[in-house]
Amino acid sequence: MTLVDTHCHLDVEAFDADRAEVLAEARAAGVASIVVPGIDADGWDKLLGLCASDAGLYPALGLHPLYLHRHREGDLAALEQQLAETQVVAIGEIGLDFHAKDPDHDRQLALCRAQLAIAQGAQRPVLLHVRKAHEEMLRLLAETPVVGGTAHAFNGSLQQAQRYIDLGFCIGFGGMLTFERSRRLRHLAAELPLEAIVLETDAPDLTVASHQYQRNSPAYLPEVLQALAAVRDTEPAQIAEQTTANACRLLGLQASSS
Question: Is residue 256 situated within a structural domain?
Answer without folding.
Answer: no
